[in-house]
Model the fold of this input.
Amino acid sequence: MGRISIRPLLLWMSYCHFLVTVQPLNPSENEIAHPETKSHPNPKLPASEMPLEVDILNLINVTYKDPGVSLVEGPIRKFPAYKFRVTYGNGPLTHSSTVAEAMNNSRGFTVVFLYRQQRNNLGTLLSLHSPGRLTPWFQLTSNSRTGVLTLKYRLRNSNKLNQIDWSLPRHHRKSPLAAWIWLSLSMDFQEDLIRLDLDCAPSLFEPIPSRKTSHFQVGVPRDALVYFRQEPGRKKKFLGSMQVAKVLPYVSHQRLWNCAEISSNLTPEFQKPLLQ
Done:
């Protein structure tokens, strides 16, 4: 008798589990485009000017007239995007102290990129080094061959180089705008968390191992050398197009672009921001 009564219960539980796993997520339960409030830094476009931003593309004063640079169409309309080829040979940023200061905020900082990388390219988006040292304080590298985004960083008063690897979105290349990657990475030293947002995929979080020291932020020296699109010696040079490259001296707790639905169920062609 007990076997007869428990079987319908197990079947009912299995059916409920089936409904939960196959039904699409309710958009109201996901991170929808946040309502515009006074506290939000911009109208959901990372190209908009944000408070205290350090715009790297403006900092290097890049134009389509530079050798190895051409003007291309990006996802954000009416905003310039630049394609960088091998012949563009910039070195460390000439005004690197503004980047170092932005990343030395005791509460944390955010880096924002919107880029379309060339195939089979291992390129460094941003890398900060003390003079004469190859080990970075902060380094973000994108590998379009293996589909991996790599973060390397050192904390103040520590020689340990921490590394985190994430999978990059897989994009269909049927249209020129399909392979652009929307990226925002925040290092929050109050919550000891690293937040990564890629396109419209769910946010990813990694802990910062900082409780053992009282000075746990990334302590970038004022004389640090800042490399954009490469590393010292011009290694791992990024090849492709860039429309946004910014450093914000504060933590962003929400993504800076509109998404109709944040869901791991979405196929890659739908995991893109909505452009109006």
